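Study this pair:
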Amino acid sequence: MKLFTEDQLFRFGETTYERGGSYGPLRGPYLWLAMIDAGRSRLDIDGRCVELNAGQACLVYCREKVLQRFPGDLHCHASWCETGEFLDTPDNQRLLQRSFGAFDASARLKSLLGMGLELEKEQPGQAEALRDVLAKGVFYECFRQLGLLPERAGALHRSVARAKSYIERHYAAPCNLDEIAAYACLSA
């Protein structure tokens, strides 16, 4: 699954709505993670609605139009991670369709979003690369939490991967099992 380009740009943000308000409408295709830290909101995404309460998040994938509304009777605080264009392939469309709806934000997701918000305050040019890698982590954490990450075929245990790396880097020189095992932190 490849959802983003190598040079994908992301933004983190947060805002407070004291007396109601709205965000949008935004025209698609568009992808963002919306999280409600306090209060609640209603998202209208391509004619479908999602209600978010405090502590909940939603992967917002819109093809046409999205609008987020905040009630006037509550103090509401929202945070987000967004990207405009992404790899809008048929496979990614199916994946994102399956992610529709509110879910309880994990502690990890809240932490990643908080770190992204801190990086957003850095001087321009200082932290964009780290911010963008972190943002990808935000989206992949959502997929992990929703059970939508595909199984990685051929994923190696960390020790086996270290041993393989050692062999690949030292293939021209004689090496023995004891050296490989020591590098991989294993016994021969």
